[in-house]
Design brief:
heterodimer; A: 427 residues; Phosphorylase Kinase, domain 1; Transferase(Phosphotransferase), domain 1; TATA-Binding Protein; 3 domains; 12 helices; 29% helix; globular; B: 194 residues; mainly alpha; Recoverin, domain 1; 2 domains; two-stranded antiparallel sheet; NAF_dom (chain A); serine/threonine-protein kinase (chain A); protein serine/threonine kinase activity (chain A); Ser/Thr_kinase_AS (chain A); transferase (chain A)
Chain lengths: 427, 194
């Protein structure tokens, strides 16, 4: 054990495992609602973080359904590169284990605690990743509501990972340094929450982002009062000082985000139009054919031939995935048969795509990729026998929008090359 | 639908089996087994529609008593786990397509299944064309040329065309505890087992 930093865990025994699947390696720290350990999977050797919630101490029975809902929210947010992934949940009668991605780089703010403020380009990069993650969540109907430094982690490559989404309803146990103000109020919390008014989670997150950007650039909090009323007044009167080294555009963003009135406060997604924010912005995860392109790789390359068993296995009746898709009724795939030549079908797909305003690309394995706004499509063509082709149309993103807005247009456009559309049964 | 489909089958009597035992016999952890129980209860309350899915549930009914109990459900889904052995998946697919359970996939069975799929698509193909599809596959798969595919031929065919057992893997099973997290409230797992 060559880790001098973290304090030893009170309960950790040498060979502790979690339900025989993970070996606990070392105590990482106390999160806002759980003890966090570094652990290793005994199945594939991967390193993970295990958050252990003690049911008897931390969580009342009434809160368990809350945790269940939160896990569901976290599951829906898994696909953003700057959101800490949750892998699985385990439980015993007394404990709940959340197994999450291990953020090797530790907390972003311990960097600041050690080295002080960050140069503007560095601060901007973390801020871009933070805002991108939050906008993604807000689009999925989840607000974080509890942004604070110990929820901002770094992976091995120094990318930001936002953790603990939706877990804000869980009790606070912590009281340390940068995380809190002297009077003990959560320093990163928006004034409308302090005032115990009902609030909009996305707006509250925007406030927290303003604070975080300030701390990244300055190295300390803008407000720090000894009691809540004083704190509230300081926030209301915007009584904070920008050090001279903060650039004008960055000041503007902080000023707009730290608007005490949530109605006037800058919306996070409008930052994508801001030139300071956009500077050296990495390709958006929203871009379907970039990072966020997560469609299942088929074993068959487009253009290859398909045998009778391939045809049968298309049956929705053989697709047990339907048992698990609890939340979405989105159809992700459409198929049609064609009796035309492969080249003719491919040319038609490209032509219709262009007419309908899609960006058209040909992928590595011969598939045709199309993108328009938030909708991404993949066309793959397979030969069954001479004079019979099967065309699979995958909806990569924006499935619902595709059904609503585009499917009929495509059907009309492709009419000449389609023999029949394959209709899927839904459960 | 095709005539090989069995009569309507329900998942019923959610009889409980010791999760620890099931976990030790399958790729699942004890928490995953408990999460599967949530899914099992959900399915018990819904009648599964007519369709090829009955063919799969027929095979889940290991005791062949017309009921899929919880143990059968977990053991069978274990085959669909991403970490399950490829041989098990290949064998399950063979049993799936061997409609009349003769130990062979016959040309007639394959044709029946293709017809059922085309029926799903409302696609009317000429008999000649369907024959051509089936013949083409048989000329590839039936290497011994006796008009039927045996287990060895099937294994060889699958290793040439791994996409054929794509349906035998459900990546979702890895996320089962996230999909049905309510088991954390009801878990019966003792800490001494930790």
């Amino acid at each position: 054990m060559a880790s001098p930093q973290p304090p030893p865990s009170p309960t950790l025994s040498a060979a502790a495992t979690i339900l025989g699947k993970y070996q606990i390696l070392r105590f990482l720290g106390r999160g806002s609602f759980a003890k966090v350990y570094q652990a290793r999977s005994l199945i594939d050797g991967t390193t993970v973080a295990a958050k252990i919630i003690d049911k008897s101490k931390t969580v009342t029975t009434a809160m368990e359904p809350q945790i269940v809902r939160e896990i569901d929210a976290m599951r829906r947010l898994q696909h953003h590169p700057n959101i800490l992934r949750i892998n699985e949940v385990m439980a015993t009668k007394t404990k709940i284990y959340l197994i999450v991605e291990f953020a090797e780089g530790g907390e972003l703010f311990s960097k600041i605690a050690r080295h002080g403020k960050l140069p503007e380009p560095h601060a901007r990069r973390y801020f871009q990743q933070l805002v991108s993650a939050l906008c993604y969540c807000h689009r999925h109907g989840v607000a974080h509501r509890d942004l604070k430094p110990q929820n901002l982690l770094l992976d091995a490559d120094g990318n930001l990972k936002v953790s603990d989404f939706g877990l804000s309803a869980l009790p606070e146990q912590l009281n340390d340094g940068l995380l809190r103000t002297t009077c003990g109020t959560p320093a990163y919390t928006a004034p409308e929450i302090l005032a115990r008014r009902s609030y909009d989670g996305a707006k509250a997150d925007a406030w927290s982002c303003g604070l975080i950007l300030f701390v990244l650039l300055v190295g300390h909090l803008p407000f720090d009062e000894t009691n809540i009323p004083a704190m509230y007044n300081t926030i209301k009167s915007r009584n904070y000082v920008f050090p001279t080294w903060i650039s004008k555009p960055a000041r503007h963003i902080i000023f707009w985000l730290l608007d005490p009135n949530p109605k006037r406060r800058m919306k996070l997604d409008s930052l994508f139009e801001n030139s300071w924010f956009k500077k050296s912005l990495k390709s958006q995860p929203e871009s379907m054919f970039g990072l966020g392109f997560n469609y299942e790789q088929k074993c068959l390359a487009s253009g290859s031939s398909m045998n009778a068993f391939d045809i049968i296995s298309m049956s929705s009746g053989l697709d047990l995935r339907r048992l698990f898709e609890t939340t979405s009724n989105e159809k992700r795939e459409n198929k049609f048969f064609s009796s035309k030549k492969m080249e003719e079908v491919e040319a038609k797909v490209k032509e219709v795509g262009e007419v309908l305003g899609f960006k058209v690309e040909v992928g590595k394995n011969g598939a045709i990729l199309l993108e328009k706004g938030k909708v991404g499509l993949v066309f793959e063509v397979f030969e069954i026998v001479a004079e019979l082709l099967l065309v699979v149309v995958k909806v990569v993103d924006g499935g619902l929008k595709f059904e609503e807005l585009h499917l009929e247009d495509w059907k009309i456009g492709l009419h000449d090359v389609v023999l029949s559309w394959h209709t899927e049964l839904t459960m | 639908m095709g005539c090989y489909l069995s009569t309507s089958k329900k998942v019923q009597n959610p009889g409980y089996e010791e999760p620890n035992v099931l976990a030790s016999e399958t790729p699942f952890t004890v928490s995953e087994v408990e999460a599967l129980y949530e899914l099992y209860k959900k399915l018990s309350n819904s009648i599964i529609e007519d369709g090829l899915i009955h063919r799969i549930f027929d095979l889940f009914d290991l005791k062949r008593n017309g009921v899929i109990d919880f143990g059968e459900f977990v053991r069978s889904l274990g085959i669909f786990h991403p970490n399950a052995a490829l041989e098990d998946k290949t064998a399950f697919a063979f049993r799936l397509y061997d409609l009349r359970q003769t130990g062979y996939i016959e040309q007639e069975e394959l044709k029946e299944m293709v017809l059922a799929l085309l029926h799903e698509s409302d696609l009317m193909l000429s008999d000649d064309m369907i024959e051509a599809i089936v013949d083409k596959t048989f000329s590839d798969a039936d290497t011994k040329g006796d008009g039927r595919i045996d287990q060895d031929e099937w294994k060889a065919f699958v290793s040439k065309h791994p996409s054929l057992i794509k349906n035998m893997t459900l990546p979702y099973l890895k996320d089962i505890t996230l999909a049905f997290p309510s088991f954390i409230v009801r878990t019966e797992v003792e800490d001494s087992e930790v």
